[in-house]
Amino acid sequence: MQENLLGLVEQAGVVGAGGAGFPTHVKLKAQADTVIINGAECEPLLRVDQQLMALQAGDLLDALDLLVEQVGASQGVVALKEHYHAAVEALERELSRHPGLRVHRMGAFYPAGDEQVIVYEVTGRVVPEGGIPLNVGVVVSNVETALNVLAAVRDQTPVIEKYVTLTGAVRTPKTVKVPLGITVAEALALAGGPTVEHYEVINGGPMMGRVVSTGSAITKTTKGLIVVPEGHALLQSLNRPVPRMLQDARVACMQCSLCSEVCPRGLLGHRIQPHKMMRLAAYGTLCDPEYTPMNAFLCCGCRLCEYACVMGLQPWKMNGMLKGEMGKKGVRNALHNQPEAAAPFRQYKRYPVHKLIHQLGLDAYDVPAPMEDSSRDYQMVTLPLSQGVGASAQPVVRAGDRVEKGALIAVAPEGKLGANLHASIAGKVTAVTEREITIQQ
Fold first, then answer.
1. Could you tell me where the DSSP H helices lie in 200-278?
2. pLDDT, position 3
3. What is the pTM (predicted TM-score) of this model?
C-alpha cells in the first residue's frame, strides 16, 4: 500500500498547495510519529482551507488516515483556528469513524499557519533553527494537498485544478476551483472583476504574497488573489525599494526591540532578533559578537516585524536582502541550534489577526468569500513548467500534439526533485518553450 501510494501521488504531480510547492511524494517517504493537517489558513483574507474542511470533512479525515499510515505515525491531527465554527463542527461529526485522529483548535493569531509555529502549538515541540518539522518527528500537510493525495490514490486523478480565494476590491468575493494555467485576469472575472480602475493584484496573502501581473498564470501554489487599489499602504510596503528601506532604518530605528518581541521564530527560541539586524543600516555593525548576518537565515519572512514597528520599518526586508547576498556568495545557513524551550510569555505575545488586518488597512475586505461552482470552458491555458520546489518539469509533448484533459505533458527530471505536470484542458498543444506549455481548444 505504501509504495503504491507514493507512486500514485508522484504520478499525479501533487505538491504543497499552500504556497510552498514541495513535491508531496518526497515528503511522504519520511517516517514520523505525528501528522498535522494545517488548516490554520495562515494569511488574512484567504478562505480556501476553512471551506474545504467544512464541505469535505469526511474526505479530509480519510486523507489524513492515509498519511498517518504512510509515514507510520501514531496520531493524526487537524489543526485549525477555533473561530472556523463550520469546519470544527463538520470535522467533529466525522471523527467517530477515525480513531487515532483528533481536532486541535488554535487561537486567531498570526502566523498560526507557519509550519514551525503549528508544530509547537499542537505538540509542544520546537523545530530546530533552519530545520523542518520532520526533525521533531512531525509531517505537516496543507488541507488541499491532503485532498489531492486522496484523489490521486482513490481515483488516480492528477492535479489539474486549484482552489483560489478571489477577494479585495472585487465585485463579489468568492472562492472557486479553476483549471491550472488560466490567467489571473480570467480568474478575477469570476468575482465580477475589480471595482477600481487602477489596482494591483497580490498572489497569495497580504503578508507573504507577491504582486503579479493580470496576465500571469494560476499554478499549483496559487492560494488567493487580492485586488488592492493603487496607492494602498500595503502596496507601498511591498514595493518599497531596498535602498529606501535602508535609509529609513538608518534615520528612524530607535532600537526599541518591539519587532523582536513579536518575531514568531524568536518566540520559539531561535536566535533571531530583528532589531539587532537593523543596526547594520545605522552603524555598519551589529554591535554584538554573538549575532552575525548569518542570523538572517532564521527569518521566515512573515513581515510581522513591520507591523509591530511604530516607525513602519522593515526588518524582514533587511533579512531578505542579506539572505540573497549571502546566497550569491555561496554562504549557507550554519545555524542549527535546538532550543530547550520556547520564549517565556510566548502565549501573551501572539499577534491578533484582526488587529493585523486593521493595521494593513484591509478591514473593508475582511468579508466572506463563499465557495461557488465556477465550472466553465476555457479556450486556452499556459502551464508553467515550474510550479513548485525543485527542477522544472521536462515536456513530453510537442507543438501540434493533441492532448486530453488530465494527460501527462511534462515529467520531473529523473533523479531530481520536481513534479509531473498534466493538461488542465483538452486541446492542441500550440507552444512548448523552456518555461511553459500552451494548450488551446
1. 233-239, 242-252, 258-262, 274-277
2. 63
3. 0.96
